[in-house]
Amino acid sequence: MRGTHPVPRTRVEQLVRQRRLTTQEFCAEFHAASQRVGRPLAVSERHASRWFSGRLGGLPHPATCRVLEHMFGEPAEVLFGPPQPDPVPGGPEATSSVAAEGGVETATTASWEREIAMAAVESARFGQFAEQTNVGPHTLEQFRADAARIVATYPTRPVYPVFVELRELRNRIFELLEGRQHPRQTRELYLVAGVLCGVLANASFDLGWLAAAETQARTAFLCAELAGNNALRAWIRGTQSLVAYWDERPRMAVDLAVDGWRYLPEAGTARVRLAAIEARAQARLRDRRAAEDALRRAEQARNEVRGEDDPGGMLAFPVAKQTFYSATSRLWLGEQADLVLAEQQAAEAVALYQEDPPEHRRLGELCLARLDLAAARLGRHDLEGAAEQVQEVMVMSGRRRTDSVHRRLRQVANALRRPHYQTSALALDLRDQILTFCGAPTAPALPGGAG
User: Fold this and answer.
1) d(Cα 121, Cα 124) in Å, to the nearest integer?
2) Strands, E, within 174-270: which ranges?
3) Which helix (H) or strand (E) covers residue 244, if one does?
């Protein structure tokens, strides 16, 4: 066993060393033994090392105990206790216990007494297992508080430092979930883990890593399933739809949003968000009827919201965000009447965001709403009005850069290449400013008729 402790710390570690097994070989033998006893199980090298170290604070799962007893022929209480002294050759440990008459065990030996006693030991062992938990009385409360703090401050903080904090907190929860706790505590840990993975998905997306965002979202959804929480299921489906939308897969974005709609949240605005995200994707597909139906469902879902979002913060979908998503949908639909409505809605969204105090203002969303307003004005050939919004965005987003804002800025730069802007000094200067700010090539055109 590479890197082993100089002195065995538990009986199981002692026996593994006596058999000259590496940790990897032990894990393989454990899996094979579990198949022989009819309960296929696997153990990671990391978790096996915790068995050897005696850091479990008790016995592992009863099914695990049975496999180990089958492997080593000793009770689990002994295996997870201290190492035993090596037997003395010919000593009493080497002598089998026998029945009193002639030293030969007979059929009259009360083997059923041993079975009854063993059954009682097994039940007592399971009772001890069921009582054990690696989650202290204040641990869950602290995790909930940490998660609530992060989701509340995420929209106003630089993304990468939050990403690092999220990852460290998520890893601590994952480590606890590898141990044991009461079912209610397990569900709560999965719920917090799902929130953290969901925010990690959002952070990965904001940092421009869409594939990583999808991976985080899949794990977040699994945690939501294990927690049995519909609000988180719906929110994660919305995040997956959002990633697909920005990854140029609007049909997939629609499908994910529709799938999320079947989860009725316990409380909060997750359904409002799903319908608004679907509306943008449908509009990008130029399906006016479906887009307007989704916008109506978003309004209806807003009227049917029951209670506050938990833990709130970035998981909440405020009216300002719903309004700017509606503006984006109108931009994609692209008719002149749509552009007029998009300008009105984007301006309304900007005003709503600015009503929040600076320390709670959602900077990334405000920037995107301003860029919708700029796009609508470009669609009406109001270059000065568009430039005003773009300048504001470059000032604001310099404090909190996100990939989606950079993409939209590049789209504006691409729109400024259109023939009717080629002779405009303002257009040429604005385009140069955007490309310098973003430091990357241009992206596809703006939604709908905005170009």
Assistant:
1) 5
2) none
3) helix 230-246
